[in-house]
């Protein structure tokens, strides 16, 4: 808002200039539609971006999202973006209830929140400029100024991190509630200043102001339960009241002290949330790995960087890492400039309240994350400018409007088009984990965490060799970072290098022990991964020790229960695995793997009926899971129901034509039923899907031999022999097929091999003798 000389005018003061008539409802709606359309154009391509970075722990690994009953209690044992923020967590849980882990719905809600915030900013600015204190100067310009400021803010590339990066819904949703609180305030105090506009009957009633007051309080309360930045709202509302409505703090408190007291009361639940979450699981507050002094030195540079990005949004960086400025000399220029700006804003609050309010808006909203309170996860982050940037953009729009008048829309519209294009292009970078992290390391090559994230992204795409190379470059940048060793170990495990992988996991555990009773997420993952590697090596007792350690850190983890169950089963204790599978399913009801493995464990224990029932339950939830049909087939076979088992095996093979075990099982039952051709077809599909299936190849070759198809049989016998050791009977049958093809010398070699493996095989000895006799009759080979 434009600065004014002296104190702000009283709302009852008469303007020397007749106020402009409020714009028609159609023009207001058209301007709002333009803001929304511009935001949609800038973010139309943001729906395909995957979960990245903190999304993986805050959404994918957040068990409280699986049940709405737990949604208001986000996990406080691990530091996630949702920790201590129940309203944010609830919105994520509603997304999960709607579409599960399908990422498009999360992007859709993020965009809807941003659209709502943009329209609230538009309405808030317009109504502020129409207040009696400002109407004389800005009444005629209220609509274009509000529209252009909101439009530029909505499409600015600096907002992409808060909109396209899913978990930064924390910032945009907090911004939405903060703007809603302000909008409700200005509606409450201006309910009689725009008589040509209509409002809801409840809000036009004698108690209408109280209704707006209540809505403002509820918005502020929801905001502090979304993110701590909304703590600035009660103070900013008071400054707003003084600057634009009451004319002084005393008058504001006399007129609306109950309202301001109610808003200030929202600090109490905020304090409780911060304390109950232990400083957001140790990721924010004093006593962490970053000291308050180092963090403060860093923020001078950070705030200047933010201001530059508002003017020129490049380069945009997803993750600035944990780097701090420890050298006071380096930090001093930035601190001096920011200090001068902050002092000017403070002075303006007294002398030019409108300008002072904009300065207070910028600094007060940034204060929780950009002051002396360390945020150990990131010392700088672009999403922190989501709301503060609105004050800067508004001042720029007002300044240009003062210089150019109505013609200001021409350059501002051109700037808006350019900003929207840059935002849309930035969204393309978010389309894959690899692309966003390649972009990050290119712009911030000293950020070891970004290199590690790139390595993990490459591993997730199956490019483990490239990932290993990235980690080898990244480790020297941060050799004592446990997350780096964890990621490198995971890549080595994918490459089958179990021993060095285990060494990396052990180093991660050494560097990141649990602290202050709060489990470090790296420690948890390292225990899980080390346990799985040891299990693959057959070191079951050691694997169980690591997985049980993970479970002690997080009893609410699906991964801990599921992997412990797998290790118990692999160690031969299927009975002990059952309750672990059951708990894993309780935590993740839609887990195909856990339900399938539970059915397998039940079958091993001879509980075929229960295994069949569990498989059928999974099929009802997800009929397209081939493993569920296969497990049901095995259970029905154990129950003496071969026809039903065959139907299940064939359905599994139909759903997944490459499911070799399902084809093989169906083939065996078909052969037993005398349906040789159908059995041959299924065995053929099995060995095509998995060429190293020795037993299935031999069974197929045997039935082909019995059917007189000796050439095909010989080919499968040869392939089985090439894969590894085969029994004496297979060599004997291979010899029979070769003999029928006239390849007597090769047949004689197979008979001899059969006799050497099983000297007691009368059939093989007899066939060897016949082959020798036939070869003798033929005479020496020429």
Architecture overview:
- This protein has 782 residues and is mainly α.
- Among the domains are: 338 residues, no CATH class; 122 residues, Tetratricopeptide repeat domain (Serine Threonine Protein Phosphatase 5, Tetratricopeptide repeat, Alpha Horseshoe).
- 70% of the residues lie in helices and 0% in strands.
- The longest helix is centred in the first third of the chain and has 27 residues.
SSE diagram, text form:
Elements: H1 25-43, H2 55-60, H3 86-99, H4 103-129, H5 132-138, H6 142-155, H7 160-163, H8 169-189, H9 201-204, H10 208-224, H11 233-246, H12 249-264, H13 267-276, H14 278-282, H15 292-311, H16 328-351, H17 353-366, H18 388-404, H19 409-429, H20 433-443, H21 448-460, H22 464-474, H23 482-494, H24 498-511, H25 521-536, H26 540-553, H27 558-570, H28 574-587, H29 592-604, H30 608-621, H31 626-638, H32 642-655, H33 660-672, H34 676-689, H35 694-706, H36 710-723, H37 728-740, H38 744-757, H39 762-778
Helix pairs in contact: 1-4, 1-6, 1-19, 3-4, 4-6, 4-8, 6-18, 6-19, 8-10, 11-12, 11-17, 15-16, 16-17, 17-18, 20-21, 21-22, 21-23, 22-23, 23-24, 23-25, 24-25, 25-26, 25-27, 26-27, 27-28, 28-29, 29-30, 29-31, 30-31, 31-32, 32-33, 33-34, 34-35, 35-36, 35-37, 36-37, 37-38, 37-39, 38-39
């Amino acid at each position: 808002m434009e600065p004014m000389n002296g104190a702000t005018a009283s709302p009852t003061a008469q303007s020397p200039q007749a106020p402009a008539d409020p714009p028609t409802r159609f023009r207001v709606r058209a301007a709002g539609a333009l803001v929304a359309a511009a935001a949609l154009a800038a973010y139309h391509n943001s729906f395909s971006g995957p979960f990245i970075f903190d999304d993986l722990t805050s959404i994918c690994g957040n068990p409280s999202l699986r049940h709405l009953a737990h949604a208001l209690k986000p996990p406080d044992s691990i530091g996630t973006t949702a920790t201590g923020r129940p309203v944010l967590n609830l919105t994520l849980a509603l997304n999960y209830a709607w579409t599960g882990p399908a990422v498009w719905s999360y992007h859709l809600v993020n965009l809807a929140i941003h659209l709502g915030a943009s329209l609230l900013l538009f309405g808030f600015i317009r109504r502020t400029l129409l207040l009696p204190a400002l109407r004389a100067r800005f009444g005629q310009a209220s609509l274009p100024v509000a529209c252009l400021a909101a439009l530029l803010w909505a499409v600015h590339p600096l907002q992409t991190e808060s909109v396209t990066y899913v978990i930064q819904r924390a910032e945009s949703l907090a911004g939405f509630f903060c703007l809603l609180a302000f909008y409700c305030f200005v509606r409450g105090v201006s309910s009689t200043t725009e008589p040509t506009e209509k409002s809801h009957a409840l809000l036009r009633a004698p108690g209408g102001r109280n209704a707006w007051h209540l809505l403002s309080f509820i918005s502020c309360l929801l905001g502090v339960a979304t993110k701590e930045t909304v703590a600035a709202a009660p103070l900013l509302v008071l400054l707003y009241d003084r600057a634009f409505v009451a004319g002084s703090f005393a008058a504001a408190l006399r007129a609306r002290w109950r309202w301001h007291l109610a808003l200030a009361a929202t600090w109490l639940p905020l304090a409780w949330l911060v304390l109950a979450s232990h400083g957001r699981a140790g990721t924010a507050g004093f006593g962490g790995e970053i000291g308050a002094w180092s963090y403060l030195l860093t923020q001078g540079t950070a705030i200047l960087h933010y201001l530059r990005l508002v003017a020129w949004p490049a380069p945009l960086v997803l993750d600035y890492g944990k780097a701090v400025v420890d050298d006071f000399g380096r930090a001093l220029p930035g601190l001096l400039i920011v200090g001068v700006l902050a002092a000017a804003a403070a002075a303006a609050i007294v002398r030019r309240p409108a300008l002072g309010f904009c300065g207070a808006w910028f600094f007060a909203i940034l204060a929780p994350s950009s002051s002396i309170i360390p945020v150990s996860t990131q010392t700088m982050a672009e999403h922190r400018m989501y709301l503060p940037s609105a004050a800067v953009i508004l001042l720029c729009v007002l300044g240009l409007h003062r210089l150019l008048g109505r013609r200001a829309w021409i350059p501002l519209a051109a700037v808006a088009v350019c900003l929207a294009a840059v935002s849309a292009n930035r969204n393309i970078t978010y389309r894959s984990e690899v692309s966003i992290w390649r972009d990050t390391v290119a712009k911030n090559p000293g950020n070891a965490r970004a290199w590690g994230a790139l390595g993990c992204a490459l591993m997730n795409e199956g490019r483990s060799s490239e990932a290993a190379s990235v980690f080898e470059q990244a480790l020297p940048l941060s050799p004592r970072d446990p997350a780096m060793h964890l990621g490198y170990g995971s890549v080595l495990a994918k490459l089958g290098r179990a021993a060095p992988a285990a060494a990396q996991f052990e180093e991660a555990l050494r560097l990141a022990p649990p602290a202050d009773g709060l489990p470090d997420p790296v420690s948890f993952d390292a225990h899980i991964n080390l346990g799985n590697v040891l299990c693959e090596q057959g070191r079951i007792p050691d694997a169980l020790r690591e997985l049980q350690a993970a479970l002690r850190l997080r009893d609410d983890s699906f991964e801990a229960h599921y992997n412990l169950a797998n290790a118990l089963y692999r160690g031969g204790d299927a009975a002990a695995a059952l309750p672990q599978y059951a708990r894993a399913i309780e935590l993740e009801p839609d887990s195909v793997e856990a339900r399938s493995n539970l059915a397998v464990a039940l079958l091993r224990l001879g509980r075929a009926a229960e295994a069949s029932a569990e498989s059928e339950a999974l099929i009802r939830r997800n009929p397209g899971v081939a493993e569920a049909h296969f497990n049901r087939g095995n259970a029905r076979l154990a129950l003496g129901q071969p026809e039903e088992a065959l139907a299940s095996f064939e359905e599994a093979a139909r759903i997944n034509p490459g499911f070799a075990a399902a084809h093989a099982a169906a083939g065996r039952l078909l052969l037993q039923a005398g349906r040789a051709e159908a059995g041959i077809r299924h065995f053929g599909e099995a060995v095509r899907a998995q060429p190293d299936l020795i037993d299935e190849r031999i069974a197929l070759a045997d039935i082909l031999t019995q059917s007189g198809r000796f050439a095909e049989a010989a080919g499968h016998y040869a392939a089985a022999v090439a894969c590894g050791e085969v029994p004496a009977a297979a060599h004997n049958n291979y010899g029979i097929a070769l003999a029928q093809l006239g390849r007597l010398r090769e047949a004689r070699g197979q008979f001899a091999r059969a006799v050497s493996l099983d000297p007691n095989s009368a059939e093989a000895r007899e066939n060897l003798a016949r082959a020798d006799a036939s070869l003798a009759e033929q005479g020496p080979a020429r």
